[in-house]
Amino acid sequence: MGDILTQIQDELDMLLNQMSAALRQIRENAPPSVPPGQQRLDTFAELEARTAAENTQQGAAADPSQPANAPPPKPTPEQFEADLKEMAQDITLKEQQIEKLIAHLPGG
Description:
The chain has helices spanning 2-29, 44-62, 77-103. By secondary structure, the protein is mainly alpha-helical. The chain has one domain.
């Protein structure tokens, strides 16, 4: 039984890591939504990018040997949707694996 409990714990750890990665992906790459009747505000990532660009322009004049660190490009809306679908499938598969392990516990 101890072996199954260890497997369940390991699988739960992996499930939580997958969920955390999915939330990070959504937070970083989801397009902002604008409620009806309100103006669109810049996202934190857009503000950071603008500040970094301004600092790079100021820093480039002072030290041209430093290369600019551009953030990676955002995925297209189609790629973002495909990534979300893949992450959802991975999470569902992991949950099913955990259910199978739980079914093999004694007394169940």
